[in-house]
């Protein structure tokens, strides 16, 4: 009888130990499954699918800080493109400059006002001048805020009889602002100044 009781007690200990092992294993598997599921959900939320020309394209979302240098350079390039790409058409000039001035502060407006007062834009219209600009390099220092930049570009000024290539160097600072349709990058150019704008080459047409 006592042997039977000992056997029952031993069996109960084994059953209890086995139950504890099963519970611990189940808890471990459940925790691991939850961790993997949460990780997969987060990864799937970072993926964006775009429909372009009937094709589904996949994009990966990332934080703004990771994209600051790329977005800053594109903002600076876009501003200079609008400010310096001009045609002998008053509406084109006004449209481009309006877009440019959304991307910068009063320092750009002051340069625009000075050029307008000097008759620069009316000279483009009366002289049938086309002006284009191409960025050579854009340096942005994101180690300090607001971010300082320097822009190096080449202007191509096409007149009736000549084509002039001109070097352009400008500098300024970038401050973050709210994104909008007029300012999709969410930057504002401050303290913008033209450091150099000299002729490099004149080509006869």
From TrEMBL:
- InterPro entries to which the protein is assigned, alphabetical: Conjug_transposon_TraK
- Which top-rank group of organisms is this from? Bacteria
Q: What is this protein called?
A: Conjugative transposon protein TraK
């Amino acid at each position: 009888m006592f042997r039977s009781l000992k056997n029952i007690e031993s069996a109960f200990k084994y059953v209890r130990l086995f139950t504890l092992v099963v519970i611990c294993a189940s808890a471990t598997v459940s925790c691991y499954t939850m961790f993997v599921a949460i990780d997969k959900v987060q990864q799937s939320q970072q993926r964006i699918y775009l429909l372009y020309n009937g094709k589904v394209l996949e994009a990966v979302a990332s934080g703004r800080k990771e994209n600051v240098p790329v977005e800053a350079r594109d903002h600076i390039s876009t501003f200079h493109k609008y400010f310096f790409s001009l045609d002998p058409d008053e509406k084109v000039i006004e449209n481009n400059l309006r877009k440019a001035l959304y991307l910068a502060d009063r320092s750009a407006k002051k340069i625009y006002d000075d050029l307008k007062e000097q008759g620069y834009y009316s000279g483009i219209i009366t002289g049938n001048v086309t002006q284009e600009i191409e960025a050579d390099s854009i340096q942005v220092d994101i180690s300090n805020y607001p971010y300082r930049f320097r822009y190096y570009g080449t202007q191509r000024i096409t007149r009736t009889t000549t084509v002039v290539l001109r070097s352009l160097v400008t500098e300024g600072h970038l401050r973050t602002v709210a994104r909008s349709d007029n300012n999709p990058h969410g930057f504002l150019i401050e303290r913008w100044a033209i450091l150099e704008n000299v002729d490099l080459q004149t080509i006869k047409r």
